[in-house]
Amino acid sequence: MPELDDDFDPMPEAPEAPSDDLCCGSGCEPCVWDLYQEQLTEYRAKLAAWQAREAARVKSA
What we know:
The protein is an all-alpha fold. It has one helix and no strands. The chain is rod-shaped. The model has no long low-confidence stretch (mean pLDDT 90). Pfam families: Oxidored-like. This is Oxidoreductase.
């Protein structure tokens, strides 16, 4: 059985912004841009956590 790599911790990937033609401009709830902003906020939190883990990993190495 292959050994799992406990150190595998890839950097999170940023969400892809929707193209301008995906927004119909009619004020939908939620708009594709609202959803993107939520994803971006979540990404930034995950990125900050990953950066903290990465800094701790480098410091302990």
